[in-house]
Amino acid sequence: MKSPAMNIPILDLKAQYAAIREEINQKVLAILDSQNFILGAEVRALEEEIASLSGTRFAVGVSSGSDALIISLMALGVGAGDAVITTPFTFFATAGAIARVGAELVFCDIDERTFNLDSERLREVIERRMKRKPGRAGSRGKKGRGGKRTLRATGRRTGREQAGQLKAVIPVHLYGQCADMDPILAVAKEYGLAVVEDAAQAIGSEYPSQRGVKKAGTMGALGTLSFYPSKNLGGCGDGGMVLTESQKLADKLRCLRQHGDTKKYYYKMLGGNFRLDALQAAILRVKLRHLNAWQAMRRERATTYDRRFAESGLVAAGLVKPPVAVYKNCGITNYHTFHQYVVRAKKRDALQAFLKEKGVGTSVFYPLPLHLQKCFAYLGYKRGDFPVSERAAKEVLALPMYAELTPDQQDYIISCFKQFYGN
Asked: Do 320 and 264 belong together in one domain?
């Protein structure tokens, strides 16, 4: 078989490392010399810098983005007997965290354009699960303190005697673009639900909230970040962060991440080992200095893709570029940080195979919605329950996207698309 003209990975971390090798190596050696590996000064400094970047009061470093979700739910007291709503079109960790704390997992479909949680469908999901008194079908439930509605889930059974009481909602800022948070927050407030933002793919992304421009992860009670190596700000291993405006929640998170202790060998609550290590924090602090430049370069690469796809005629032929919300006169720069550049394509699987033959790396985020995953079969969902998510899973394709991607590489990728659809 003829060798491809180019080999373009979907992500080139080696190119990123080559540009900052000396900075990273010096920091790593300094940590090794110190022999201080868990939490400590580097973690505290990173927390302060991430809080400043995000425009929030507190940031608490944890062991991974997945653990950030788990510890956030623990801090809110979510557990057995509760229910949490999220999207079925996201990485497993979002739903997995809900299940792992013992809460009932409730799915809500996504917006057709943005792939993020649909606020109108969110209200519908809540309404379907509200307590309905005998003889009062359609009752909206009692109002408690502050006009918040008290809910008891009814809907789909999961093998338990009674479905869980709705406690929280987790919107996901997928691919680097914020969910439409104002209506989500309004619905959550109306029904007394806590909001935990999954911002694992969206560090620095901005949203024109009614309270001014807000960064991803700072609009709900808690927001979670991931520093998995492939993220826009990625470490050399696992790492995560929880953002919050609440002193009380920040203190609780710090307690929970260290087994629940307030001082050594004295435990206030049942926590876990969710600590961020100093080595990852030190590496992330080096990379953080470059993040704004990298984000700008990602936006430039996305603009190049958009222009070249339009010029090629592929958009007119049915290829769908990533939708980007445009907010006028609100000072937004990072409305989309393009953790992934994701198109919707006809004959997606055949296209992906063709691009692989041509040396172009791609990925599908995500090929099977979570409500159809075997591990969640106990929830009783079936194919057709969330049609927008199911269509997206059949059509989405992530293309190479990183700051070091060159114009020649992008031109080659576009030419491969033209070859495939031209044939």
From this structure: no
pLDDT, tens digit (0-9, with 9 covering 90-100), for 363-401? 999 999 999 999 999 999 999 999 999 999 999 999 999
Same domain, 154 and 48: yes
Report the length, in residues, of the chain. 423
Kindly state whether residues 93 and 29 are assigned to the same domain. yes
> Do 336 and 205 touch, CB atoms closer than 8 A?
yes
Do the domain assignments include residue 237?
yes
pTM across the whole model = 0.92
Express each pLDDT in 115-158 by its tens digit: 999 999 999 999 998 753 333 333 344 554 455 554 544 344 44
Give the span between the Cα atoms of 137 and 127, in whole angstroms.
Answer: 12
| CA angle in degrees (0–180, nearest 5) for 170-337-319 | 95
Distance, C-alpha 102 to centroid of its chain: 21
Q: Does one domain contain both 342 and 272?
A: no
Contacts 24+ apart (CB under 8 A), 250-258: 250/57, 250/58, 250/60, 252/75, 253/60, 253/62, 253/71, 253/72, 253/75, 254/60, 256/71, 256/74, 256/75, 257/60, 257/61, 257/62, 257/63, 257/71, 258/39
The answer to the question of residue 5 being in a domain is no
Domain count, the chain: 2
> What is the extent of the structural domain holding 143?
17-288
Domain boundary (253, 288, 323) is at: 288
